[in-house]
Amino acid sequence: MATRLVLGQSLAIERVGKSILQPSRPVRQNSANADFIEEIRNGTNLVFITAHQDDEIYVAPLLAFAADHARAAILCATGGESGGCLLANAAPLTLREVRTRELHKAAQLIGAEATVFGCRNGTSTAHPDGIAVFESYADSVARWKASGEGAHTPDQVAARWRTECPEFMEELREHIEALTPCIVVTFTKDLGMIGHNEHRAVALVVHNLFSGDPPPDAALYSVVHPDRSREDNVRIHAKHLQEIGGRDYLQVALDAFALYESQFGPIGCPENKDALATFGHFAETMHLRPAEGGTK
Predict the structure, then answer these.
(1) Do 74 and 45 form a contact (C-beta atoms < 8 A)?
(2) Beta carbons of 218 and 182 less than 8 angstroms apart
(3) Sign of torsion, CA 96 99 102 104?
(4) How far is CA 133 from the centre of its chain?
(5) 287 and 223 in contact (C-beta within 8 Å)?
């Protein structure tokens, strides 16, 4: 998995290449870190808005920490319908149902609430009538490439979502307002953490929401790839959260991520272990950038 393309509702696409596996630069603490953590300790809720189930690995330790002190929520745009399925016994459930169940199990372990909206992941599918049938990794790669999924721009994806799920923006606003005061975290519009077009599309939707008539008493941050972190970004170390919160939040994050068996194979299998090694390091230090115009 460390050198493989992850598909569908996945975490990476080819054009990012090996850069996602490079070690991050050393970071220095700044006062913004303490202020950010103190807000959560004082009862500010944390909301992560994402495109796919399993994306929350990027902020999962922070979500678990927030769940211990306030409320934590994962708002997921799509149901992962176009992804591959590495489970041989998932039928007669649809892939959307399988992915949603995995999200709820992971969220429960983290201590977060979870909501899946009506947007569709991709446009290709190997699953007749949506049923979650086993698909080899090689077949998933071939299907994803043949469909040209990665060529769709974030604007095109967001436009499709507006057609498929016209209530998406208003539902997002309602969920955010129900959780205020809150810190909202999503992806950056330029990279989407690792280049995934649907990461960038959900970032576009959320940033547009905040740039127009932003939800009251909510602050917007983007999770940033370590290689693109700046000195003025907030850096939250999972070990520091453990020191002040009394729990191993990184391990909680990894245990939750392993539950996505349809995406990475059964817990303990080589593919699942590789996925933990590939993406788990993002959770060790979480880099967050305040969005312009997205402060309370």
Answers:
(1) no
(2) yes
(3) negative
(4) 24
(5) yes
Q: Which of 10, 49, 64, 9 minimizes the C-alpha distance to 187?
A: 49
d(CA 242, CA 65) in angstroms, rounded, equals 8
- Measured on CA atoms in the order 245, 251, 253, 259, is the torsion positive or negative? negative
Q: Give the list of residues 6+ apart from residue 213 with CB closer than 8 angstroms, or none.
A: none
Residue range 229-271, pLDDT digits in tens: 998 899 999 999 999 999 999 999 999 999 999 999 999 999 9
Q: Rounded to whole angstroms, how far apart are CA atoms 122 and 144?
A: 9
Write down the residue that tokens 């493989």 correspond to: 4
Single-letter amino acid, residue 87: L
Pair of tokens at residue 261: 């068996």
* Spans in the chain with pLDDT lower than 50: 1-29, 295-296
- The continuous run of DSSP H or E covering 164 comes out as helix 154-164
Please give the pLDDT value at position 168. 96
What are the phi and psi torsion angles at 114 (to 5°)?
-140, 135
CA distance 206 to 188: 10
Domains annotated on the chain, with CATH:
30-100+116-290 (3.40.50)
